[in-house]
Amino acid sequence: MMFPTRHPNPLLHNPSEILFSVLDHTEVGLVVLDATGRALYMNSSARNLLECPTGIIPPDLEQHLGALLDQLRRSPQAIERWQHEDAVLRVRARPLDQFTGHTVLEISVARSGSSRAIAEQLAAGLGLSITDARLLALLWRGMSNDEISQLLKVRVGTVKSRLFRLYQKLGVKRRPAAVLRAAEILQS
Fold first, then answer.
1. What is the dihedral of CA 179, 185, 187, 188, to 10 degrees?
2. Residues 107, 40: Cα–Cα separation, whole Å
3. Is 0.85 surpassed by the pTM of this model?
4. What value does the mean pLDDT of the chain take?
């Protein structure tokens, strides 16, 4: 009996292409900076969050970058919140390694605009009920399950079950993917 020969995936022969594919599709914005603060790499999530399709850090954020890199020189990591347009971004900086002087920025949304306007835009854009859209807006603002339960005056278990149903409606499995779905709507 002969088995058909399988043609190997060409990506498997080039590990760097696999790595860049994984990095580009991760749910957190990633930026790799050289020692001078110039962006060497920016994944698609970072380009969307920073609204820079060319991969160049916008001038209004460059001013924050110097202070962040100074802070990083004094400690193993630095975390700041940056105002960009109507969003507040959480930016975590850490050295890539001890040899190159490169820095990695992990970027996520802390909060954005008024919750009501965001919820209405999410409801319309994703076809969600206003209740589900409000819950997604709270995720977009970076709130934890405990913070959401305190705000809504419900148990944490209730928040978790509502989030599970929301993820199903959005076709995602985890919180960062849900936030990125919201980002697609809010930044269009």
1. 160
2. 15
3. no
4. 80
Nearest alpha carbon to residue 127 among 91, 171, 169, 89: 169
Residue 31 amino acid letter: V
Show Cβ contacts of residue 149 under 8 Å, excluding neighbours closer than 6 positions: 155, 156, 158, 159
* Nearest 10 degrees: Cα torsion 44, 39, 111, 133: 0
Which domains are assigned to the chain?
10-111 (3.30.450.20), 115-186 (1.10.10.10)
Residues 6+ apart with CB under 8 A from 47: 29, 53, 55
Cβ neighbours for 76, distance < 8 A, ≥ 6 positions apart: 94, 95
Q: Are 49 and 26 in contact (CB under 8 A)?
A: no
Which two structure tokens, joined as six digits, stand for 154? 């419900």
Q: What is the pLDDT of residues 153-162, one digit of tens each?
A: 999 999 999 9
Beta bridge partners of 155: none
Q: What angle do CA 10, 12, 14 make, to 5 degrees?
A: 85
